[in-house]
Amino acid sequence: MDEFDVVIAGGGVAGCSCAYNAAKLGLRTLLIEKNSFLGGAVTGGLVIPAMKTGEKKLNHDFFDALVVAAKNFDAQITYLDGNEGWFNPELLKIVLENLLQSVGCKILFESTIFNVEKKSSDKFFGEVCYKSSLNTLSLPFISKYMVDATGEGNLAELLNCEFWQDSRRRQPNSLRFMMSGVDIGAFCGYLDEIDKDRGVTNFAQIEGEWHFTTAYTWDSNKKWALEPLFKKAVEAGELLLEDADYFQLFSVAKMPHAVSFNCPRLKEPDGEVFGRSKSIINGRATIFRLANFCKKYLKGFENAFISHIGDIGVREFRRVKCKYDFTINDINEPKTFENPILYTDYPVDIHSNKRDGSTLREVRTYSPPLESLMVRDVEGLFVVGKCLGADFQAQASLRVQPSCMSMGEGVAKHIATQINK
Q: Is the full-model pTM beyond 0.85?
């Protein structure tokens, strides 16, 4: 039976950050990932670029190391607003593996924890189901600490932990995609002609290549330059009205002719057995219509094609009850905590499938405490990432990548301090 100081379930950026820092600090570290790659929503779900979270930093070592490593693999750019989190999603799989291996972290792909319990006051006993070349096998393990970085609280569920029951409202999932073969220089020139709002559309040449971001939604809070095109396509029957609810585009680091789409939002019927499956199927049909719309209406997309469709992107599923309930009140009136885990001023960002139903509210810099990552029901169990111990509105500000990386790093440093006492 293998024994570890810390076992981390989930190899998204929160789990990778936790594993990297734990191993770097000398802990025997195992990272378990259900897929055959690291990066989670970033690499599998095409959630790029990382959003900026303010100038004040805490537990930012992993993000900084990731930027340096990505530069070495030619997988990163720094955008014109100073955001270093513009990554190449495919190369980032390699970058993350190299980072974790460089500090001695053990990685187990295509694996899930299917049984875990705490038989004594200081150790977890569990089993991992993993694939070998011929069979599906079981690996028993012992660990002093465990971290749930699954994004869905799967480890917490196995340990019968309590979840928040504060809202029936859910943020819609997304199904991101990419198109290649785009003449991005021509598209940026077109954007310059039609959209002068640099709060929505901006572009620049970076390292000899054109990069940009632009958007359109059916919400009425802004005047959108792309609105006439969407209206024309809907009237012609080329798009459905709901296809035009949210449309956000980014260029991609070190992919000169590729564009990443933060859309479509998925419409999942509540309570239906086949609801999620239907929404994914409908999402891919929407992607096909949006791609044809781009080819017909957007200059530079004439010869473009769909090159990637990501995994389903989950903004919010469920959140674990922790030792401190971090709520929207702690953001509205920022408190000073004894054990801050990160600093952020990222807005409260709540997506909705209803017209004018979304929220993007600016906030002052705030910091949640470590106790919002310490699971209430099980000593020695932590949660990092989007299923942290926060209410629905607070999670909508904290779910972005840099914050999730800081959560993982802060927990790893705390565990190392406890072990080395």
A: yes
